[in-house]
Amino acid sequence: MIPAGTKRCRPLEQIPKENKEPPLDIEHATPEAVPLHMLQLLDQYKGEVPKISSAELMMHLIYLLALESGFVENETYNQTRHKLKPVPAFSSFHAGNVRILSLETTHYVVEFNDTMFTIKLRTLQDKHATEEAALVVAMQSTLRAVHLGDELMVSLSPPVSSKLPGYSIALSIARYVLNIQAKGKPIFNRFRKLDNLSYLIKQHIFYPMRTQQLMQVNHQLLPSLMGMPEELYEKIFRHLSRSQLKIVAKVNSHLNYHTKRVLERFDPKFS
Q1: 109-111 and 71-73 as β-strands: parallel, antiparallel, unpaired?
Q2: Which of 12, 117, 192, 214 could form a disulfide with 219 if both were Cys (CB 3.0 to 4.6 A apart)?
């Protein structure tokens, strides 16, 4: 018996769910909800969807991940740079920038019977960055995707003059993009396993390239061992043994300098 005056509660499954905010990035997208920047970019190709191959559609997905990773297509950057906010070295994702850039048409070159797609990219930096010619070149890269059978061979290459390594990965198109679209369903319903795609592309392509580009122009990447405040090195290194400090000193000149300071201060024999 329920006492008089007691408010009855509806079973949990009958309570309507509140409308959830769309996910912030592609990693957290679902077949029912995708980030605003994905909707904005795909909306530009609404009338062309039947003509877009699964490989080309996947290229658009990869470009969206490039935006989330602090990159932008060169021509788009030149047109929108006055609207963009600085992106600090220790970060890469700026939601405001990504939404602005996803409204712009993606400029890319299609070659070899629609089997190769090329986009010229520019890495976004913080507000202290200048537009010197050498710096502009250092921040450029070429994103290329080649359709071979069921695979998309994705590579990101720096300018030849930089002598830096490039990065590449092979991805199964069918794993992430369905060949057909259900009638009446939005185009993003063709996408699958976007969390996995996001992880692979960012970790193997975009993050390594951005890191080496920023280090090339002496940006310290926080949080990292190389980017810590000066006073922290002594507090950490004083807990290491002499032999451990010697190992750390061999990593690079920056760490060599700080390990020597610690050894000189706490080990009179070293000085």
Answers
A1: unpaired
A2: 214
